[in-house]
Design a protein that fits this description.
Helix content: over 70%
Strand content: under 5%
Structural class: mainly alpha
Number of domains: 1
Order of helices and strands: HHHHHHHHHHH
Number of helices: 11
Low-confidence stretches: none
Radius of gyration: 19 Å
Distance between the termini: 25 Å
């Protein structure tokens, strides 16, 4: 991969330009979107439904950011092959670089979102501690998970354009199946173990412990998504290599 570092860098810059092309506010939309969602959900769950969660905005915002990292990362990468049809059909290079560069651009975006919204998190009452230094670790683990999901999605989308619609529905379901707007304490005990094996559940819980509870994530909080991401990455890469030879014909 090191020999393709210049290609990756060019593709990352291209991804950023395309993402904010013809947008007046540009990167600011990356901040306004989670803030607007936080405000709406706080109004609904904290005021209208009286969820009873103390400091609901701080409870919610960090988890929204990691969910956006996953949702946007996989959704953008899903189009990475089709969106670069001219490169795929005219130039030879490992096609998985297109998926990787999309994921890396999203990683940079997610990191900038956290940094830009950190003052707001502090204003909302976040405890300042060394635990914030664990954020890169959690994002790196989530990146592996995103890359593992992105490879088969991008490959399958070349052959079956319905994959985009199916994945949109899966993300909508995942938003409510993961503990973003509620605590894991609401999960019935008979489902607790199965629920905790969801890698994104562990990612979200890790971020919430760091930013909301001021607690150290457990080894399982980090190990489960890491192992799950690595397994998914190997399987996704195998699927990608299987489907790659006919990309140019199908685009």
């Amino acid at each position: 991969m090191f020999e393709y570092r210049e290609v990756i860098w060019i593709l990352i810059k291209k991804d950023f330009k395309v993402r904010y092309r013809n947008s007046t506010l540009g990167f600011l939309w990356s901040l306004l979107n989670p803030l607007a969602m936080m405000s709406i959900l706080t109004l609904v769950f904290s005021t209208l439904l009286k969820a009873g969660i103390e400091n609901f905005p701080l409870f919610l915002l960090p988890t929204l950011l990691v969910w956006r990292f996953f949702a946007i990362g996989t959704s953008m990468a899903l189009w990475s092959i089709i969106g670069n049809a001219s490169l795929v059909t005219k130039v030879y290079f490992p096609r998985w670089l297109l998926v990787l560069s999309s994921n890396l651009a999203n990683l940079v975006g997610a990191t900038l979102e956290f940094l830009a919204l950190l003052p707001l998190l502090l204003a909302l009452g976040m405890r300042v501690s060394w635990l914030v230094l664990l954020l890169p670790v959690v994002l790196a683990i989530e990146f592996v998970l995103i890359a593992g999901a992105s490879l088969p999605l991008a490959a399958l989308n070349v052959y079956y354009r319905d994959v985009n619609q199916v994945w949109d529905i899966a993300l909508q379901a995942g938003f409510f199946l993961c503990p973003i707007i509620y605590s894991t304490g609401l999960i019935p005990s008979r489902y607790a173990i199965l629920y905790s094996l969801n890698p994104m559940t562990r990612i979200i819980e890790s971020i919430r412990k760091i930013f909301y509870y001021g607690a150290l994530p457990t080894a399982w909080d980090l190990l489960i998504p890491l192992v799950g991401g690595l397994v998914l990455l190997m399987l996704g890469y195998a699927v990608f290599l299987k489907l790659e030879p006919k990309f140019a014909e199908e685009i």
